[in-house]
Amino acid sequence: MKKFLLVTDLDNTLVGDDLALAKLNQCLIQHREQYNTQIVYATGRSLTLYHELATEKSLLAPDALITSVGTEIYLEGSKTPDQAWSDKLSSNWNLEQIIAITNHFADLVPQPESEQGAFKASYFLTPESAKSTLPQLKQQLQAQGLEAKLIYSSSQDLDILPTQADKGMAMTFLRQNWQIEPTCTVACGDSGNDLALFQSGLECGIIVGNAQPELLQWHYMNPNSNRYLAIAHCAGGILEGLEHFDFL
Ligand SMILES: [Mg+2]
After folding, report:
1. 123/37 same-domain check
2. How many domains does the chain have?
3. Is 244 exposed, middle or buried, given 0-12, 13-18 or 19+ CB atoms closer than 10 A?
4. SS3 of the chain: helix, strand, coil, percent, to 5
5. What is the pLDDT of residues 126-180, one digit of tens each?
6. What is the pTM of this model?
7. Helix axis angle, 18-35 relative to 234-244, nearest 10°?
8. How far is the CA of 125 from the centre of ligand 1 (A)?
9. How far away, in angstroms, is 140 Cα from ligand 1 center?
10. What is the pLDDT of residues 85-119, one digit of tens each?
11. What's the gap in Å between 211 CA and the centre of ligand 1?
């Protein structure tokens, strides 16, 4: 047993099975007390929607919160995004010009105002439309010299982010600031916007048993012995993976 950094997605990863979550929380509380283990939630939700979830489910207070698909980091309960991370994301990012282009696509339906951010434009997009819209949008952004990353998740959410932003890059930023080795870091997820948590392949990865097809497909096409596909769903899958990696 040793200290580790747990970075986990919330919806359908940490949250989704209340009994398993209670069991995992018990283990994490003990681990935190004994080994000073650190917990980070990495979610596609905004801070507003995170607080909504936190009132419904029993979530342990995290050491840091990565929200809005990695575009905002909040340290230890702070209500303002970490300035150093925001500064990193602001270079080569022009939200107004990006929105001007997305306005030409009728099948991109803007998500609610609470889900839009200084470094994130979010839309609903059906899988049928995604096939043609995503390449066209990418091409138009490129033609205008705009640097942006498109992340399509759960067959419905399109997030347009700075190229320097995603959950994985935010995790690396925190891990390096806290001087934690990748081998002592565990990332957990279930859908397309969690793929970035597994992309470097250096950290231990847990994909929960109920993962979305887009993530499973990538997992099978990019095998890595540092990544574990759990059988159990949600928090049960995280528990199973932590035991697999000998963290618990
Ligand atoms: Mg999820």
Report:
1. no
2. 2
3. middle
4. 45, 20, 35
5. 999 999 999 999 999 999 999 999 998 888 999 999 999 999 999 999 999 999 9
6. 0.92
7. 40
8. 17
9. 29
10. 999 999 899 999 999 999 999 999 999 998 899 99
11. 8
Tell me: do 236 and 190 sit in the same domain.
yes
Domain boundary among 161, 196, 218: 161
Edge to edge, the sheet with strand 72-75 lists 72-75, 64-67, 38-42, 5-8, 185-189, 204-207, 227-229
133 alpha carbon – ligand 1 mean position (Å): 23
Domain range spanning residue 112? 92-161
The alpha carbon of 218 and the centre of ligand 1 are apart by a number of angstroms equal to 16
Å from CA of 188 to ligand 1 middle: 9
pLDDT tens, 25-50?
Answer: 999 999 999 999 999 999 999 999 99
Residue 242 CA to ligand 1 centre (angstroms)? 18
CA of 44 to the centre of ligand 1 (A): 8
